[in-house]
Amino acid sequence: MNTLIVLAHPEAHSYNAHLAHTSQRALEAQGHQVRLSDLYAQSFAPDEHARHFQRRADWSRFDAQTEQRFSSREDALAPDVQEQIDQLLWADLLVLQFPLWWFGMPAILKGWMDRVFVYGKFYSSQRRFHDGACAGKRALLSVTAGSSQAACSPDGREGDTQLILWPIHYSLHYVGYTVLEPMIITDVRRGRVADDEERQRLLLTARLVEHASSFQSLQSRRIVSFNAREDWDEQGKLRPGAPVHSPFIRHVR
Ligand SMILES: Cc1cc2nc3c(=O)[nH]c(=O)nc-3n(C[C@H](O)[C@H](O)[C@H](O)COP(=O)(O)O)c2cc1C
Q1: Rounded to the nearest whole angstrom, what is the distance from the C-alpha of residue 197 to the centroid of ligand 1?
Q2: Do 154 and 234 belong to one domain?
Q3: Total domain count for the chain?
Q4: Fewer CB near the last or first residue (10 Å), C or N of the chain?
């Protein structure tokens, strides 16, 4: 199996970087091929912008989807985007490794998605979800949170972290990925006093061991459920009686 790990963290010695390297070693130990794409190390430009397009379908007005589709067809995408696409297409498994920042992913990773999931190549209105370009591939979020496990739970003060990840999961599903249940590592913060600091260090070191072992059971990891094509009516609304997998898409009386 080929795996691409995309790391979004500005510090090479961060816990997130350790997690990314731990995942890489765990997968390589099972005989898999792994590539690591460290977005900060590459100074990946996250802002989708006209300057990234050397050739244009329309020079009078910049429309991101129009230009993405045009450049993709003309084989004229920006080299940094093309490189990421080649890695994505090579990978059977995509792992996104990032810290939770303001209840979402860091801007560099959001921008990576904006630029790399190219319209016309990865998805279109005719080709998305189960027909998206990444159909048959799997994706997994590995996310750290500074807050405690209790605070990140469904009745916790920080909101249900699993639910907060839904828009990212849905984006991956949109381009065709089968999405695995995320790995959420809570309590990733510095201790406040020396004692606390040592306890934190031990806890986080133990979590790295757990993280590595969770890659042993990847084949049996639960899959995030989404609605199937037949669950939608002509207007794109949930048909009566269709299953509900998340509060984001639900029946309305
Ligand atoms: C800009 C910013 C926003 C953050 N927002 C959240 C948040 O919404 N929820 C949370 O639990 N922690 C939040 N944190 C804490 C980080 O998630 C935490 O520091 C990180 O997961 C620790 O991993 P690291 O040591 O690899 O940086 C935030 C941190 C930063 C810098």
Answers
A1: 17
A2: no
A3: 2
A4: C
Question: In this structure, are 26 and 119 located in the same domain?
Answer: yes
- CB of 15 closer than 6 A to ligand 1? yes
Q: Is the pLDDT of residue 187 over 90?
A: yes
CA 243 to centroid of ligand 1, rounded, Å: 34
How many angstroms is it from 152 CA to the middle of ligand 1?
A: 12
Decide whether any atom of ligand 1 lies within 6 Å of the 162 Cβ: no
Each residue's pLDDT tens digit, 108-150: 999 999 999 999 999 998 999 988 999 999 999 999 999 999 9
Residue length of the chain: 253
- Ligand 1 in contact with 99 (CB < 6 A)? yes
**pLDDT digit string (tens) for 66-119?**
999 999 999 999 999 999 999 999 999 999 999 999 999 999 999 999 999 999
Q: Are residues 160 and 240 in the same domain?
A: no
Together in a domain, 238 and 218: no
Write out the H or E segment, with its range, that includes residue 38: strand 33-38
Query: Is the C-beta atom of 147 inside 6 A of ligand 1?
Result: yes
pLDDT recorded at residue 196: 84
Angle between helices 79-90 and 107-116 (to 10 degrees): 90
- Alpha-carbon distance of 209 to 206, in angstroms, equals 5
Same domain, 70 and 177: yes
Question: Which atom of ligand 1 lies nearest, measured to the CA of 144?
Answer: 21
Residue 194: pLDDT band (50, 70, 90) is: confident
Q: What is the C-alpha separation between 113 and 148, in angstroms, rounded?
A: 28
The protein residue with its alpha carbon nearest to ligand 1, atom 22, reads 188
CATH number at residue 135: 3.40.50.360
The answer on 80 and 93 residing in a single domain is yes
Domain, as residue range, for 244: 227-253
